[in-house]
Amino acid sequence: MTFSPTERALQILALLARAAEPVSARAMVEALDVPLSTVYRHLQILKKWGWVQEHAHTGLYEPGPMSVQLAHGFDQHSWLMQAARPELEALSSRTGESAGLLCFLHGHIVCLDLVESQYALRCSFVKGVARSTIRGASAKALLAHLPEALVQPLLVEALPDTADQPGNTAVMQFSACLQQIRERGYAVSEHEVDQGVWGVSAPVLLPRAQLIATVSLMAPSQRASHHITEWIQQTCLAADRIRQRLLHR
Predict the structure, then answer these.
(1) With contact defined as beta carbons under 8 Å apart, do 156 and 171 qualify?
(2) How far is Cα 199 from Cα 220, in angstroms, rounded to an integer?
(3) DSSP state of 23
(4) CA 20 to 30 Å from 133, out of 103, 157, 205, 218?
């Protein structure tokens, strides 16, 4: 696939945004399959505009100060965040658990917002962090409402052949699970992403099944076991209220 210079620059920004630590120019070359000279040319422009900064001692690259302004603008002015934040806070207050808003972006599950529980919870989701996964209620609720042409390659990559189960069988079983989630209207998981954590996730869908995000509630399995039906209902209602807010903006 051929990418324009603008797309190459955006690929570099996306790579830095998803990276857990600063990245070298040579690592970008390997990840993006482009010449080193091309990477440096784009980095110089991105540094000039403050989107990227270079560590003075290591020479590694990381997001620059302009990224902070963009993130702040998203939090303060995004139509989605303005509609979702009050409902996340209300859901967390009603249940006493952590409530998050997540979306699917270029093969990753991204946490857009998170209202944390007053109780300690070991959860992998962190605001602004992307995860490459098909596991967990949030991922399944999103995958269930994405186009099949987009989902199938992800499943094939994530569910390779094993000695006891061929890859195509695993993909078919997972696809059937996604169909059940579509029919039911929510996804539930336990111990899939974090041991001891239960989760439920309901999609925010606009007309013509346009997927915007998913609302997720996460809690320790022991506490959740006493409230499963209630919390599933509360999460679905929160997703629907966000949908209504978006429709009437």
Answers:
(1) yes
(2) 9
(3) B
(4) 205
Write the burial class of residue 55 (CB in 10 Å: 0-12 exposed, 13-18 middle, 19+ buried): exposed
* Residue 147, φ and ψ in degrees, nearest 5: -60, 140
| Per-residue tokens: 245 | 């807010």
What whole-number distance in Å separates Cα of residue 141 and Cα of residue 122? 21
Domain 5-66 has CATH 1.10.260.40: no
**Residue (of 18, 13, 58) closest to 39 by Cα position:** 13
Both structure tokens of 201: 């996730």
Domain ranges of the chain: 5-66, 78-247
Distance of CA 65 to the CA centre of its chain: 23
| Cα–Cα distance for residue pair 104/107, rounded to 1 Å | 7
pLDDT in tens, 80-138: 999 999 999 999 999 999 999 999 988 889 999 999 987 766 777 778 877 778 899 99
Taken as a whole, the chain contains a residue count of: 249
* CB neighbours of residue 81 within 10 Å: 16
Domain with residues 78-247, CATH architecture: 2-Layer Sandwich (3.30)
